[in-house]
User: What shape does this take?
Amino acid sequence: MAGFEENPFAGDSENPFADPSVASVTNNASKGLEDFNPFADANTAQPTGAKPKTTPAVQPPPPPPPTAPPPSSSQPAVLPTREEPPPYVIEEEAENLRKRQEDLERKAAELQRKEQELQRMQFGGYRENNFPPLPKKCPCRPCFFQDISIDIPIDYQKTCRMVYIRWQVYSFTMFFNFLAAFAMLVKGAEPIHDGQTFGISILYLVANVPFSFLGWYRPCYNALKNDSSFSYVIFFLIYFLHIALNIFYTLGIPGGGTCGFINATQVVHNSVPVGAMMFTTGVLLLVGVIVDIFLLMKVHRIYRMAGASFEKAQGEFASGMASNPHVQSAATSVAAAGVRSAMTNQK
Assistant: This one.
């Protein structure tokens, strides 16, 4: 038993904890356990001899942008000042307002004039003629009253305006034909018929413009205005003749008075500008023939829709002749002369 009572670690050489390296570790461990405080901050309470842990610095979020404080009830809200427009902008606006005011005044005057004309028509008053629009200082006075918006029914106003525009373009075509013939005379590009085309072009300008107005535009105006079968028949007859003459004008026979395609082809070799003017005249005449055919078909369609006929035209002609004061006076004179001659024979 004595052997068991001996301390196996009595000798320093045999004691494992007597090693200096082991003793230092055990001493540091015991010191760390004594200094450890579980309630201390995790960053400060670290075991002795251990390296402190470094945490990366966290950037704070950027501050929010400053917002304008809501307007209080005690302080009034300050509105931003508006820059004044430049002076030229103000002048343009004033000019536009002035033009609009003038347009409104002109339209108001036109409406007042139309109301007066309608009142005169209702009460059978006299309507002052307004066509052709001559200046007040002119000694001649207008011969016709023309107002499509008053006289013509709404359904036919577009057609009547188209016929009126066609008459205006036809008048311009006759004037341009006169200019082309005059240019051809000045350039001497017509050696065979010297001056003949120019002379006849003056006749066409002086005669065709008023005759076309009286011959086919005015009958069309009266037909659409009064739904007159007689005016429709007159329009169709004269308009057919008008189309046939325009086809002849388009050809441009040398010495025929018009600058059409035939004489334009002969003249263009002598003078290119004069030939170009003559070709332009031929194109205007040709396009006019096409438009004339279209308008003739359009007016004929209205003629059929209105129920007009040749028999009604004959009846209107007879009643018009009977109600005409000149015809009545002539018939009275003829009847009185017949009675006197009969009484003289009896004696």
Notes: Residues 149-316 form one domain. Residues 42-46 have pLDDT under 50 and may be disordered. Residues 87-122 form the longest helix (36 residues).
